[in-house]
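Structure ticket #2291
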Amino acid sequence: GTARHDREMAIQAKRNLSKTTDPVERLRLRCLARGSAGIKGLGRVFRIMDDDNSRTLDFKEFVKGLNDYAMMIDKEEAQEIFRIFDKDGSGTIDFDEFLVTLRPPMSKARKEIIMQAFRKLDKTGDGVITIEDLRGVYNAKHHPKYQNGDWTEDQVFRAFLDNFDSPYDKDGKVTTEEFMNYYAGVSASIDTDVYFIVMMKNAWKL
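Resolution: structure written out below.
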């Protein structure tokens, strides 16, 4: 049902965009209008731009990142968003903090069930889901492309991981943060905790 949720969420985000004036909420909605991976994708763009690995961005980098990700935001709005995140007035923002704030808020119950699913998939317990981890948990043989001979088992696993991986830097590994960011997007389209938890339990046989 994720694809349907994705579409519903994108439509909902576009609708809400016209109603909200809060600059951070507007940026969040612009990301969500691209589907569950929208926020994660912006995070990757920023990470690629962070040449010196400082995990911070100055205003110029911030604006360039938004432009690279084709977020059409005027300079005033970008300045306003930047100021909100630059709490200490240092002229730089911490992009981990930025992404956490941008992620749609989730209840503790939702975060817990997401982590349960992550731990189930992370067979080796090293905090990263890889193709190796998936072998015992996810059955590739039911995938239509495997059944008609187009894909090998590994290709099915890789495509599955790519769902959660960030769009511009698919490395076949999914971190807790990427998994959480992905489901924060899905969560935004589901109103009640109960429904979200049932969906997760069914999807991951928890």
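Closing remark: The CA atoms of residues 141 and 147 lie 7 Å apart.
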